[in-house]
Amino acid sequence: MQAIKIFILSDSVGETAHAVAQAGAAQFGDLDITYQRFPFVRTESLLQTVLAQALKEHAIVYHTFVDRKLSQSVNVFCQAHDLPYNDVMTPTLDLFSGITHRQPVNKPGKMHDLNTNYFDRINAIEFAVTYDDGKNPAGFLDADVVLLGVSRTSKTPLSLYLANRNLKVANLPLVPKAQIPDEIWQVDPKKIFGLTNDPEQLNTIRRERMIQYGLNPDTVYSNTDKIKAELAYADTIFKKIGCLVINVANKSIEETATLITESLGYNEPNR
Amino acid sequence: MQAIKIFILSDSVGETAHAVAQAGAAQFGDLDITYQRFPFVRTESLLQTVLAQALKEHAIVYHTFVDRKLSQSVNVFCQAHDLPYNDVMTPTLDLFSGITHRQPVNKPGKMHDLNTNYFDRINAIEFAVTYDDGKNPAGFLDADVVLLGVSRTSKTPLSLYLANRNLKVANLPLVPKAQIPDEIWQVDPKKIFGLTNDPEQLNTIRRERMIQYGLNPDTVYSNTDKIKAELAYADTIFKKIGCLVINVANKSIEETATLITESLGYNEPNR
């Protein structure tokens, strides 16, 4: 397999350039790719050192520099030495310059301004951690989103992903015969989402988890009949509540989260 | 202030296009921007409906389509109607086509393949939630990163952000006179990071938190002398451990996280 080395250069953390590189790479099947990030590159001399290294390693260069002198330097260097590159920031800066008739402020990392929305996001993350796993039923009443589902339907990572989009999320595992907290019945069903999965996929995931724990994978936890019974129980609860049900089988956290924000008609506040 | 409407179009969730738009916008000071996401646009007819809406609202169009027919449609439409647009996906697809001499697989959302790294990420998120706030000292021994810091130095969101980059993180709040768990002294100091902050910023953050709670903001919790004593105590612990200390004042979670991954020489696995 062709080995590909990608250098991510940025005067901030390089997250956006990394995401764009990964989005491209994902469309080309199995590739042997190594990503290397060079964040906080804010001087021409440091930049030249990194570029010399890129040339030596025949790397592909993805970059986001808010300083146009630095992004120009990268582009000129890559063109001169025939290194493939993607300047992620310049088109979006040009676009906003055109609309606002202003020049960019050239402040790296400005995206992460410590504004109110930023603190709201931190509060939402802490909320998700506090009210994970039905820990405290009071959370259901304050939450923007309540997730219900049997074990291994990605309630926790989904809660945190949504928190990162400024939503306060509480989740509750559904276990047959366990009592559903009264608070659930006081929540607007539009805020509640039932997570389900295919029995086969749950079986595979749960077996893997048992193996990770160094336990026998063939326990009641991964028994397909038991899983089907759990899912059927969850289904009756979802029907009783009248909430939207999402089957997370073969869906990524991002996709499930987007179905939820769409259903809520939720638009993330500006960061 | 000029009102700007940005439409984010994608055949997947639109996260990358949203990030690029925000990175551009952040460089132009105060703007009155509304973002609206249109995820999972996978047919020409749905696309045309959204584009007609964009035209009606004079929106700026950011898009990521792995289907080149759809991205071409957007670009042609925007050019014909003089709508500003940014095609985030095509340059990265062209770049990989050039290197691999292959055509993209045109599978939307492929970025979020449910591979081993994906499950590792979910495990890391669950780890961070389980071992948040010093809940169980056993976590310190299994963690890739241990965060120590006084209250309001963003330990929890930082733990989750690093978890999202596949690192297992446990954190411990430092409270003067409280016992430090023995496990901390068994951890490689290179894995430990001490978080500190400026007393003034901590005072502001803590006062705000008290107000949020509907409490008097002028408590011992936000008293500057007490805060200084807490920070001094934390400092002696950091020195005793011999760990790297990061002052999070005016740093975003992303920036602090990047300082940590750089210090570890950590390269995120491919997603």
Write the layout of secondary structure elements.
The structure is a homodimer.
Chain A: E1 3-10, H1 15-25, E2 32-38, H2 44-56, E3 60-64, H3 68-81, E4 85-87, H4 89-100, H5 116-130, H6 138-142, E5 145-149, H7 155-164, E6 169-173, E7 192-196, H8 199-212, H9 224-241, E8 244-247, H10 253-264
Parallel strand pairs in A: 1-2, 1-3, 3-4, 5-6, 5-7, 7-8
Description:
Chains A, B: Its EC number is 2.7.11.32, 2.7.4.27. Chains A, B: It comes from Lactiplantibacillus dongliensis. Chains A, B: This is Putative pyruvate, phosphate dikinase regulatory protein. Chains A, B: ADP binds at residues 149-156. Chains A, B: Belongs to the pyruvate, phosphate/water dikinase regulatory protein family. PDRP subfamily. The structure is a homodimer of 271-residue chains. Chain A is an alpha/beta fold. Chain A has 2 domains: 3-112, Rossmann fold; 116-264, Rossmann fold. Chain A has 10 helices and 8 strands. Chain A has helices spanning 15-25, 44-56, 68-81, 89-100, 116-130, 138-142, 155-164, 199-212, 224-241, 253-264, and strands spanning 3-10, 32-38, 60-64, 85-87, 145-149, 169-173, 192-196, 244-247. The first copy, chain A, has a 4-stranded parallel beta sheet, with helices on both faces. Chain A has a 4-stranded parallel beta sheet with strand order 6-5-7-8, with helices on both faces. In chain A, helix 3 (68-81) links the parallel strand 3 (60-64) and strand 4 (85-87). The radius of gyration of chain A is 24 Å and the shape is elongated. The mean pLDDT of chain A is 91. At the A-B interface, helix 1, strand 2, strand 3, helix 4 and helix 5 of A face helix 1, strand 2, strand 3, helix 4 and helix 5 of B.
